Amino acid sequence: MNFVKKYLSYLRVINQKKYESAYNGTLEINWLNGKKILDTTNTNYSYGNLGEVLKKGMQKVTTPFKEASNEILILGLGGGDAVKQLRNDFKSKATITALEIDPVVIEIAVNEFDILSFSNVNIVNQDAELFLKYSTNTYHLIIVDLFFDATIPDFVFQQSFIQNINNSLHKNGSVIFNTFILDDLHNIRNQKLIHLLKTYFTIQSFKNLYGHNHLIIAQKII
Ligand SMILES: C[S@@+](CC[C@H](N)C(=O)[O-])C[C@H]1O[C@@H](n2cnc3c(N)ncnc32)[C@H](O)[C@@H]1O
User: Fold this and answer.
1) What 3-state class would DSSP assign to 150?
2) From the CB of 24, is ligand 1 less than 6 Å away?
3) Is 121 in the pocket of ligand 1 (CB under 6 A)?
């Protein structure tokens, strides 16, 4: 059955299954170009274009994140694409902590994408904003990939969150922000974010990735 879906998915997106979630609305497991992906009503979450944006981020980061002694924090587990890329494509042996507010998404990551097959990954079912506020640990790499469907929570753009990110970073640590720009307001919002980030970080910015994605990479100024 899966083989047929995989074959047909080279021709068009095949919808396989739907999950209902209080946080994310309808979550869809689809097949596209022979790959199982996680979508919401209006966007891809994992194993599609959004994952390609994260991959570019990981390629551009200069902070070491592959050693077993390194620590990585992912804000927004989703289907676990970032975890899979870190382990399989980037061969990172780092300890990974992945935050996810939505228990249905965690269920999907476990049952549909076999996230528990990766060792040394701690999945935490908690609000990323609260986690960061009270965290005393420091990380070499933080990936901020927080969406609810096609919306990014407002706190991601606020000074207090950026301050907490900075406090949670190792001395030459880096942050990857996965965002998007659909209109002038988003453009202004992201410009303000970059302005805020420049207080603590050196910035790389990549606009118009896969259409509307805006990837921001920030490295802590030592
Ligand atoms: C685009 S998906 C993440 C994709 C994931 N990084 C991957 O590699 O597959 C965004 C996720 O952020 C989660 N999210 C949104 N706000 C959150 C919050 N405040 N705390 C934790 N998770 C949150 C959503 O439930 C959703 O699963």
Assistant:
1) coil
2) yes
3) no
Which whole-number Å values give the CA distances from 75 to 7, 31, 123, 155, 192, in the listed order?
Answer: 33, 25, 10, 13, 21
Q: Is 50 in the pocket of ligand 1 (CB under 6 A)?
A: yes
pTM of the model: 0.94
For atom 13 of ligand 1, the residue with the nearest CA is: 76
Q: 96 CB under 6 A from ligand 1?
A: no
CA atoms within 13 Å, Cβ hemisphere of 122? 9
d(CA 99, ligand 1 centre) in Å: 8
Write out the chain's pLDDT in tens, 222 residues: 345 555 555 555 667 799 999 999 999 999 988 889 999 999 999 998 888 999 999 999 999 999 999 999 999 999 999 999 999 999 999 999 999 999 999 999 999 999 999 999 999 999 999 999 999 999 999 999 999 999 999 999 999 999 999 999 999 999 999 999 999 999 999 999 999 999 999 999 999 998 899 999 999 987
Q: Are strands 35-39 and 25-32 parallel, antiparallel or unpaired?
A: antiparallel
SS3 174: strand
**Residues in a beta bridge with 169:** 139
